[in-house]
């Protein structure tokens, strides 16, 4: 109904013309039920489709008039993460489930059809409000960095050590976010297949820089030292790897692999490695 859309736009524009807003979260966190229409000549089966066309019309008017505002849509359970809405809202809240372990599957699966730059991913409080899991700040941060990093918790409840770790995570992400959001994303270990591990890597288009993440959910008795393989590197180039001495060939990293130096003791562990092309061999 055009009069409804016009009324919504009038109310929103009255606010946006008066207040310096640069970000809006557009949320619709419920199912559409008992859908019907009494409009003359309208068919009930058309209502959902016409609703979406109406929403796109509203968004077209808003983003045209306010190009400086970043609109983020809400997926909730995945229901509003579609290419149509991404045209107007380039960022989507990937899921209301913010548990770091659950997010491994959620973000891995979402990456199959949506760009990393569109995925909202936040560090949330522990115990997690849905799973009651107590994942480490390290793992929560490393998972959230594989998307648009944010924090969704009460910072006044954090210890000084946790606040410092948060600052370091934010600083690290700012340094590497261009690589995460616009680099080439390669999936290495699927959490759906391994049930306990996940790994992926972001590689720059020039293949001169990469960011590798490895995640392990639960510890096991008598685990062997973990060897990891890389993808997307230039086999003819040599790389430095954070935490390791010397340089390693891209072909060696992708085919022979590298043993993780971290002990990875306990549950909910993660490793982040920064790779850079070596200037000399």
UniProtKB/TrEMBL annotation:
Keywords: Glycosidase, Hydrolase. Residues 197-275 form the Glycosyl hydrolase family 36 C-terminal domain. It comes from Trichococcus flocculiformis. Pfam families: Glyco_hydro_36C, Melibiase. CDD domains: GH36 (cd14791). This is Alpha-galactosidase. Transmembrane segments: none annotated. GO terms for biological process: carbohydrate catabolic process.
């Amino acid at each position: 109904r055009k009069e409804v859309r016009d009324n919504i736009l009038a109310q929103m524009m009255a606010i946006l013309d008066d207040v310096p807003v640069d970000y809006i979260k557009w949320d619709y966190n419920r199912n559409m039920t008992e859908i019907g229409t009494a409009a003359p000549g309208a068919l009930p089966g058309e209502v959902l489709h016409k609703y979406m066309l109406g929403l796109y019309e509203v968004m077209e008017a808003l983003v045209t008039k306010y190009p400086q505002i970043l609109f983020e849509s809400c997926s909730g359970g995945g229901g509003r993460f579609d290419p149509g809405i991404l045209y107007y809202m380039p960022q989507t809240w990937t899921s209301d489930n913010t548990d770091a372990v659950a997010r491994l599957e959620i973000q891995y699966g979402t990456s199959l059809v949506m760009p990393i730059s569109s995925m909202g991913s936040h560090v949330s409080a522990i115990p997690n409000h849905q799973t009651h899991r107590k994942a480490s700040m390290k793992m929560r941060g490393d998972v959230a960095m594989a998307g648009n990093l944010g924090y969704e918790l009460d910072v006044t409840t954090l210890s000084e050590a946790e606040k410092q770790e948060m600052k370091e995570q934010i600083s690290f992400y700012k340094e590497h976010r261009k690589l995460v959001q616009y680099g080439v994303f390669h999936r290495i270990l699927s959490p759906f297949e391994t049930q306990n591990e996940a790994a992926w890597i972001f590689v720059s288009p020039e293949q001169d820089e990469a960011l590798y993440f490895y995640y392990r959910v639960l510890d096991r008795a008598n685990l062997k030292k973990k060897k990891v393989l890389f993808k997307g590197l230039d086999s003819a180039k040599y790389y430095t790897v954070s935490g390791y001495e010397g340089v390693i060939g891209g072909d060696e990293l992708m085919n022979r692999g590298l043993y993780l130096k971290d002990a990875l003791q306990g549950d909910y562990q993660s490793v982040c490695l920064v790779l850079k092309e070596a200037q000399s061999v």
